[in-house]
């Protein structure tokens, strides 16, 4: 059985990393326990870094480094050399990075609660799942 390769959007990642007792905390345990491989690209990691700098999180440099160490060593980094064809039109252009990563990496799933990403679910060849749907899906793997 192969381990599923999965793209997590930034909101899912940040929730799993920052809110260690929250409802997404199991995600961190799952990627660290190798129940799935989290996929990352230059653009998705840049986005994660940007969000971890948001003033509302009040994270010090050391805290950001610690959170990144909880994710990056477990992630498979995918180089995006060319943009894939036939991506669905997505309302928020900032979300395209997750579709690109999922397509180029031939991901088994893209996990996101983002309404703009969910809205293109039927037009994308990679399953787009909410965190709750992903929990059920992962159980079935």
| Main sheet characteristics | 5 strands, parallel
CATH class: Alpha Beta
User: What is the count of DSSP helices, taking H or I runs of 4+ residues?
Assistant: 7
Distance between the termini: 8 Å
Radius of gyration from CA coordinates:
14 Å
CATH architecture: 3-Layer(aba) Sandwich
**Percentage of helical residues?**
40-55%
The number of E-state strands comes to: 5
Order of helices and strands: EHHEHHEHEHEH
> What integer is the average pLDDT?
95
Number of structural units classed as domains: 1
Structural class: alpha/beta
Low-pLDDT sequence parts = none
Give an account of the 3D structure.
It is built from seven helices and five strands. A five-stranded parallel sheet has the order 3-2-1-4-5. The relative contact order is 0.19. The protein has one domain (5-139): Rossmann fold (3-Layer(aba) Sandwich), CATH 3.40.50. By secondary structure, it is of the alpha/beta class.
Short key terms for the protein model shown above:
141 residues, alpha/beta, five-stranded parallel sheet, 7 helices
Please render the helix and strand layout as text.
Layout: E1 5-8, H1 10-18, H2 25-32, E2 37-40, H3 42-52, H4 61-69, E3 76-77, H5 96-104, E4 109-111, H6 115-118, E5 128-129, H7 131-139
Parallel strand pairs: 1-2, 1-4, 2-3, 4-5
Helix pairs in contact: 1-2
């Amino acid at each position: 059985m192969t381990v599923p390769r999965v793209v997590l959007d930034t909101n899912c990642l940040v929730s799993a990393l920052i809110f260690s007792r929250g409802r997404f905390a199991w995600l961190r345990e799952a990627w660290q326990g190798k129940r799935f491989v989290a996929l990352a690209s230059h653009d998705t990691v840049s986005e994660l870094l940007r969000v971890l700098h948001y003033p509302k999180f009040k994270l010090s440099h050391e805290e950001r480094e610690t959170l990144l160490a909880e994710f990056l060593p477990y992630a498979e980094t995918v180089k995006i050399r060319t943009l894939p064809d036939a991506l669905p039109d997505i309302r928020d252009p900032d979300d395209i990075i997750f579709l690109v990563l999922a397509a180029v990496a031939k991901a088994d799933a893209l996990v996101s609660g983002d309404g703009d990403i969910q809205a293109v679910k039927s037009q994308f060849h990679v399953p787009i799942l909410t965190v709750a749907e992903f929990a059920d899906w992962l159980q079935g793997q």
